[in-house]
Every structure is written in structure tokens, then in C-alpha cells.
Amino acid sequence: MAGKRKGGRLGLALGVLVLVVLLVAGVGWWLSRENPTSPIGQPPATEPGEPERTQPADCPDVSLISVPGTWESAADDDPYNPQANPNSLLTKVTAPLAEANDPARVEVYTVPYTAQFRNPQLPEDVSYNDSRAEGTEKLRDKIASTHERCPFTKYALLGFSQGAVIAGDVTGEIGNGDGVVPADLVLGTVLIADGRRDQGAIGPGLQPTNGQGMEISLQGASGLTELIADATMTGPRPAGFGALTEQTASLCAGPDLICNAPMDAAGGAARLSEFLNNNAVHAEYDTNPNVVEGTTATEWSRQHLQSLIDSAEEVPHS
């Protein structure tokens, strides 16, 4: 009887041992089938679902996207060589940057849209509402299409006047998690003469404190602006720039009614006709020495954007 018990115990032990060996071997076979190149017990080199940090050869490290102001762009303009308005303010920034950087590293793109502002002097122009909507959609589409092909490309945005409203709105969407790319892909945004500039705007120089963007001042009188210029004044950006607040620089000349209108609606409405007829300072950001001390708004923007470009990682190409 004792011999039988010993034999039974030995058989049971051998059976358990065989079962364990088979179980380990089975797990090992399953792991090697899932990831043949990974040693058993070692995690794969790339986490599941994580793309390799390489991009197609035509993907830039940085996409610098410029949104011109009213009457400085057209829907059929060449985004890589804009000619709709040879005197467009932002070409004073983008042209030197395009020349100074390897196009394989930096793409310089100007959003082509119908940049107009219908008013009594220009009754045949496209309305501000329609112009702004077109520019906003084209900016979103450009960022989204680039990101789909080039997931590691970073973005720098630049806008002037109506273009600053557009670039600022899209920056706000991204910074608040509602945009077409994650916020960490945006290196920074520069807004010159932003019509939605509020008192909390961050600027590099002499940020005006006695006014705000015309779209904020005139929000309460939007019925009047719609009647005069078919332009809805949308007020401040409800959530600001979110995670991109510190990365967004606003430049505004004190006398410029677009970005520094009187704080009250009555004062802004009284000066609306002045803006429509004579707002010369709005066209002088390339020469005005009173926006950023020691330089001009365009030169500061160029240097700032170049520093953002220089900070961007170089992504290997596949």
C-alpha cells in the first residue's frame, strides 16, 4: 500500500510538472506569436498603437501658417508665393523666414481666402462674416490635412487684423481642447492688431491698457455694425487661449481702433466711421516704432517666430 501511495504521489507530481511546463511553453509561444522579435517577458520596443517617430520625406518639422488681413489675400492666391497684395504686411515677416530656413524643415504657408469687408464705400465686397468664416475654415483644413500626413509636425501661427481674429480663434480652439490638433503641437501664435484683443492679452511691448478689440467694444452694438457693414461683433473669446495663453503674443498700436477701441459701445460706435474712412496707423506696423520698444511689430514677429522654429525638434524622415 505504501508503494502504491508513493507511486501515486510521484505520478501526481510529474503530472503537475508537465502541466506547468506546457503552460509556460504555451504562454511563451503565444507571446512570440504576438511579437516575434521580443524576448519572452520583455515589453515590445514600441507600445501598441504608438506610431514610430518618423514622417514622410516631404513633411516639415514646422508649418508656419500666416493669415493676412482684410484686402491682403484672395481665394485663388498661391499659398506658397502670395501675390494678391504685393504690399501685404505679413509678407514682411514670412518672406524673410522662408528665405532663411530650409524648406525641408520649415513650410511657410499663407492662407488664401477672400479677405474683404463690405461697407458703404465697398458695397460689392464679400461681407466680413462670410470672409472670416472662409478664412477660419481654410486655416483649420490646412492644419488638419497636414497633421493627418505629418503627425509630428509642429505649428506656428501668424495673423494680422481680420487674419489675427481668425488665427486667434483657431488658437483658442486648440488651446481649449476643441481644435484640429493637440495643443502641444502649437509652438506659438503671433497676433498683430487682433480685433478680439482683451485686457488680459500678453504682448512683448507697449500693450495698450485704455482700450480693447473693436469686436469686444461693439458687441452690444452689433445690430449697427451688421446694418452698416454686415459684420457681427462676436465679443471676447469666451475661454481665451486656454493652454496656449502663454504661447500667444498680441501686438497692438495704441491709436489703432481695430485692436484698441474705446471700452464702451457708444464710444466705439461713434468712432466706427473713423475706422472705415481713416485708420492709417493700422497699416504702419512695419514702420511704427511705438508698438515694441526698439524695433517694429513685423521685425519682432520675425525674430520671435524664428526662435520658435529653432526650438522645434528635427523629426527623422522615413
UniProtKB/TrEMBL annotation:
What are the transmembrane regions?
Answer: 12-31
Organism for this UniProt entry? Dietzia timorensis
Task: Give GO MF terms, alphabetically.
Answer: carboxylic ester hydrolase activity
From the Swiss-Prot or TrEMBL record, give the protein name.
Cutinase
Enumerate the residue ranges of region (Disordered).
Answer: 34-65
Is Ribonucleoprotein among this UniProt entry's keywords? no
Which Gene3D superfamilies does its entry note?
alpha/beta hydrolase
Q: Which family does it belong to?
A: Belongs to the cutinase family.
